[in-house]
Amino acid sequence: MVNEILERGGLEVLVEAAREREDWFCAAGAARGLCTAGEFGRAWTVVEPFAASGWQPAIRVAIDVLLRWNHVEQALELAHPDGRGQESGDAWRDYAEALVRAGRVDDAISVLVPFLRDRRVLRGLVEMTDGQGCDERVLEELAPLAKDFRRDPTQCHVGDLWEVLAAQARVLERSGRADEAIRLLGTDVAVRRYGPENTIEFYAELLARHGRIEELRDLATGTRRSTVGITYVKALENMGRAGEAEAYLRELIASGHPGWYEHALVDLRVRQCRFDDAIEAGRHTFDDLHDGNLLQSTMMLLAEQGRHDKAIDLTEGRSPEFLAENEEWLRSNRWSLMGEAGRAREAIEEIEALPADEVDDRELTLAWLLAQDGRVEQAVAHLRPLPGRRAAIDLAELLIRQNRFTEAVAVIPRR
Length: 415
What we know:
This protein is mainly α. It has a domain at about 360-415. Helices cover about 70% and strands about 0% of the residues. It contains 26 helices and no strands. The protein has helices at about 1-5, 10-20, 25-35, 40-50, 55-70, 70-80, 90-100, 105-110, 120-130, 135-150, 165-175, 180-190, 200-210, 215-225, 225-240, 240-255, 260-270, 275-285, 295-305, 310-315, 320-340, 345-350, 360-370, 375-385, 390-400, 405-410. Helix 7 (about 90-100) runs parallel beside helix 9, helix 13 packs parallel to helix 15 and helix 24 packs antiparallel against helix 25. It is flat and about 70 Å long. The two termini are about 15 Å apart. The mean pLDDT is about 95.
C-alpha cells in the first residue's frame, strides 16, 4: 500500500505517517520518494531515527540515502559494523555494497572474504561485483572454497558451501568462459557432487542459455526432474521448436510420468494461444480428488491470458463428488474471475441468491465485487462497519484508489 500511495503522489502523507505513527514502511517509502525528488536532507531526517536503533534494514535504507546524497564517508561510517557490535554476515554485506557504490570494489571483496562460508554473503559477492571488471579476483577467492567442497562435500564445515559451485559457474559464464563453467559444473552434476537444492536446475539453465540442447535433453532424461524437463521444453520453444517440446511432454506422459508434465503441456499450449487444446490436455483431471487435479492451475493460466470466460466455464459441470469437497474454493475462484471479466453484477446476484452462512467472507467478497463494478463509494460504505484487519486493509486499498491517502493510512490498524 505504501508503494501505491507513493506512485499516486501521496509522498507527504507518508512523511507525516512516518513521523506520527513511527511506521517503518511509511518511512522507507517516504525516503525513497524524497530521494527521487532530490530532497536528500528530508529523506535523512525521516530515516535517521530508525537507523539510530541499530536495526539493519533501517541502516541499509539510511546508507542508500546518504550515498545518493553524496555523503559517502558518513554512509561508510554508518555502514561499518564495528562500533555497534554487529558481526553478522548481513551487516558486512551491506558495508561491502556501500564500498562498491563508493567505487572501492577491491576493498569490498576483501571485506567479504572472511564471511564467504555464509551463503548469503557468497551470493552478495557474486551479485555486487557483476559488471565491475573484477571477475578474475572473484574467481580467485571462490576457487579454494570450491576446492574444499569438491574434495569432501560431507565435511560439516563445508557442507553449507554447495552454492559455491553455481557461484563459480556464474562468474565464469559472465567473464566469457561459459564452456569452462559447463565443464566444471557438468562434472559435479554427473557424480552427484552438489548440495540439496538447485545445482541441477542452475546447470540446466546454463545449458539452455548457451544452446546446449542435446546435453540438456540428456540431463532431463537422466535425472527425471520435472524442473529440468520443463527447462528443456522452454529451451526448445525459444528455439522455435515447440512441436518437439510438445512431443517430448506427450512421450513422458504416455510413459507413466504425468504430474508436472501434464501441467507443462497445458502451459505450453496456453502460451501458444491454443486454449481449447490446453483445456483438453487437462480435462481428464478436472474432477479428480487428488493432487494431480489441474483445474485451478488451468483456470489461472487462462485468466493470465485474458481468457476469463473460458476459465469461468470450467467451474461449471463438475461432478457431485468433486463439489462435495471443493465447492467453496471453486465458487470463490469463479466470483473472482467474474469480477475481473466485467461480470461483477452477475457474481453479486449469485452470492445474494445463496444463504449467507454458505459463503465464506461474504461481505468482503461483495465489497470487492462492488468496486470491480465501479461502485466504489458503495464498496467503501460496505466495508466501514466491518470488524477485523482484513476489512480495514481492503478499505484502505479502496481509499488509495480514490487518492484519499490520509483516510487510508488512518484506517490501517497500528502495529
